[in-house]
Amino acid sequence: MDKSISENGETAADGSIRGYDSLHQLLSANLKPELYQEVSRLLLGSNCGRSLEQIVLPDSAKALSSKHDFDLQAVSFSADKEQMRKPRVVRVGLIQNSIALPTTAPFSDQKRGIFEKLKPMIDAAGAAGVNILCLQEAWTMPFAFCTREKKWCEFAEPVNGESTKFLQELAKKYNMVIVSPILERDMDHGEVIWNTAVIIGNNGNIIGKHRKNHIPRVGDFNESTYYMEGDTGHPVFETVFGKIAVNICYGRHHPLNWLAFGLNGAEIVFNPSATVGELSEPMWPVEARNAAIANSYFVGSINRVGTEVFPNAFTSGDGKPQHNDFGHFYGSSYFSAPDASCTPSLSRCRDGLMISDMDLNLCRQYKDKWGFRMTARYEVYADLLGEYIKPDFKPQVVSDPMLHKNSS
Amino acid sequence: MDKSISENGETAADGSIRGYDSLHQLLSANLKPELYQEVSRLLLGSNCGRSLEQIVLPDSAKALSSKHDFDLQAVSFSADKEQMRKPRVVRVGLIQNSIALPTTAPFSDQKRGIFEKLKPMIDAAGAAGVNILCLQEAWTMPFAFCTREKKWCEFAEPVNGESTKFLQELAKKYNMVIVSPILERDMDHGEVIWNTAVIIGNNGNIIGKHRKNHIPRVGDFNESTYYMEGDTGHPVFETVFGKIAVNICYGRHHPLNWLAFGLNGAEIVFNPSATVGELSEPMWPVEARNAAIANSYFVGSINRVGTEVFPNAFTSGDGKPQHNDFGHFYGSSYFSAPDASCTPSLSRCRDGLMISDMDLNLCRQYKDKWGFRMTARYEVYADLLGEYIKPDFKPQVVSDPMLHKNSS
C-alpha cells in the first residue's frame, strides 16, 4: 500500500475515505502539528500533560517488520518517581494479524500458516525485549463462529496442545510471558469447547488459564453455538513482570467484568478480541479506556485484521442477505493507561505489533490520586445486586404523582 | 470572540492552541469534509451509520442565543421504527454556564445574577419545545468547595427553597421537567448539607430528589469537607416524558453507579458536573459514552464554564503554590446514546444550551440487539462483591510457581 495514501486517507468513488492506516495517522497527516498536539491532548489524554515518548527499537526488530510487512509501533507511558518503591517498568506487546491461508485450505495448513506468520512477529517482540506479549482471540484459526458450522471445532486444542507447545519454546527463548487465546477442548470434562486464554510463564511453564466470561449473541457473533460462559472466575496471574488478567472480547462491554479483574489486583488487563467495523468500531476507543480509568490499571486491546471469507454462505438475521464473510476486522490495537492516556492505534488493515513501556507503579499512584476504590461504596452495590438477582426484585422508581391522576 | 479564530484554533505565543470552541469545531474547520465525516464516524459513532440530523429551531430560540451570547446546538438521534410501539421521541436540553458576578459580590447578588443569566437560556429551551431540561451541578453558586471555607454553605437551600420555586414557575410555563442540582440544606435532619438534584415535574410539582452518591477527594475537589455520600440510593424518576436519573459529577467515574441507575430502569441519565481541564478533560469524552453503551440508555453530560476566582488563596497539595482559582471549567456538554453515538460538544468557553431529540425506544432496541443485561451474569458479581466487602477477602490470584522457587 502506498504510504502517503494510507496516511492521508484516499477518497473513494463514493466519497468515503478509505485506505488510511489509523485514526491517529489520518489526523496527524492532515492537521498542522500544533493542532494535532491539542487534538491528541483531548483524544489520547497525553499522559497528563506528559507526551508519550517513542521507544527506540533495535534494528533487528525493525528489519523483521519491514521484511514481513507488519506495522510496528512502540511508545512509552511515564509515571512519577516514588521514594519507597523503585519503578517497575515492563515492556508489553500486542500482536494483531490476519489469517494466512484461505479458509478453504486444509485445516492443518491454515494453522501452520498462522504459526509461520506469527513466528517473525514474536521474534521481533523478543528482539525488542518485550516482557509480556498477548496474541489475539482464537489466534490459531479463522473466526469461523459466524458460520455456525461445527467442523471448525476441529481447531480446538487442550491447554497443553500444539499451539501452547509452539509458544512455550518462544516464551523460554525470549524470557517472555505469553498470553495465548485459543479455542480450548477440555479433555477432562467430556471434550467440551471453551474460549480460553492460556498464560505461559517466562520459563515456558503454563501458569494457568482463563475462560471467556461473557458470550455474545449479536450480528454474526454466533459464538453461543460453540461454547458457554466461562467457569474460571476472574483470575489474576502473578508473573515475574506483574499481575495480569485477560478480559476476552465481548467481556469488554461488561463493566462488572473489568471491575472484577481490578478487585483481584490486576495491573494489566488484556482484551484479545475479534470484532468488525460496522458493529463496534465507535465503541473501540471508549470501553477499554474507560476500564483503565475506572480500575486504575493498564489495558492492552487487540483486534484481528482483515476480511475472512468462508466457503458456505450464512445468515444471522439483521436483514442482511446471506453472505460469506464476517465483515472487516479493523485491527486498531492499542494500550490505555490509568491516567486516561492511550497510545495511538495500530493499523486498521495490516498485521501489527504494538509495544509499550509502562511503569506499573502508575496503577497505585492513580488509586491514591483519584481514590476510586476508596469512594466506591461496594457494600451498596453488593446489596443492590443481591436484590436484583431475585425474581421479585422491584426497581427503585419514583413516579410523578401527576402521571396517574387521570387514571385515578 | 472572533468566530473564525474560535473555530480554527489560534496559535498562542507558547505554541499551544487556544480559543477554539470545541474539539469538533476544531476538526471540522481544519479537515476536508470527507475526512471529517470519517473521523466523525470513528469519534462520534454517527448513530450506526445514520448521520445525526440538525434540528431546526424556532427563530425566538435563536434570537435569545444571539442576544445573550450563548452557544446553541440541536441535533437529533434516530432509532428504528417498531411495529408494536409508537416512537417515544423526547426533546432534551442541557445548560452549561459561567457564574454571573465575581465571587466577592454579596451572596444574594451572586445568586440573583445567576438566576437572571439562566432565565433567557431556559426561555430558549422553552421556546424550542424542550421536554426535559437539566442544569449544571450546584448551579446557584460558584463551585467554592475548593476553598474549604464554610461560609459558602450559606448558598445551601432546602429542596423546596428559592431556586426550586424559581424553576417551578418555568417548568409549569413550558410544560417541562427540570432537573435542578443544588447545594441542599436538610431542614428535617439537623440542617446538614447535601449535594442534591431536585426533580421538578412538568406541572411544577416536586417529584423527588437524589443526593450525590460518590464524593471526590482529588486535587482541589475538597467537597468531602462540605457533604457526605448520598443516602437516596439510585432512584429513577418516572416522568410523563420518560424515566430519568441523575448521576452527579464524580459519580461518573464509578461504573457501578451508572449500572445501578440502569438496573432501576433509567432511559436518560444526566451527569451534571463541575470539572476542570488539567484533571479530567481526556476522560470527559470517554466515561459518559461508555455508560450509555454499557447500560443501553442516553446520557446527558454537563460541565460548567469559565474560571472562578475566590477572594482567599488556598492550597490542596499536589505541589501547586497557593492559588485563588479552581482552574478552567471546560464546558463541553454533550449527549451520548446507547448505540455508541454522541453529539458534538458545546463550547469549551461559552455558556450554552444543547438540545437533542431522542427516541427512547432506542434503549430497548439496544438491549435486544447487544443483550448486555441478558449476558451480564449478575449473580457472579453479587457473589464477588458480597465476598469483597468482607475484611478477610482474598483476591483470586494464580501465582507462577516459578516465582517462589528461589525462596523455597
Automatic annotation (TrEMBL), chains A, B:
Residues 90-360 form the CN hydrolase domain. The keyword Secreted does not apply. Its EC number is 3.5.1.6. Keywords: Hydrolase. Pathway: Amino-acid biosynthesis; beta-alanine biosynthesis. One of its GO terms (molecular function) is beta-ureidopropionase activity. It is an enzyme of class 3 (hydrolase). Gene3D superfamilies: Carbon-nitrogen hydrolase (3.60.110.10). It catalyses: 3-(carbamoylamino)-2-methylpropanoate + H2O + 2 H(+) = (R)-3-amino-2-methylpropanoate + NH4(+) + CO2; 3-(carbamoylamino)propanoate + H2O + 2 H(+) = beta-alanine + NH4(+) + CO2. InterPro entries: Aliph_Amidase/BUP, C-N_Hydrolase, C-N_Hydrolase_sf. Pfam families: CN_hydrolase. It comes from the Eukaryota. Belongs to the carbon-nitrogen hydrolase superfamily. BUP family. This is Beta-ureidopropionase. It comes from Brassica campestris (Field mustard). The lineage of its organism: Eukaryota, Viridiplantae, Streptophyta, Embryophyta, Tracheophyta.
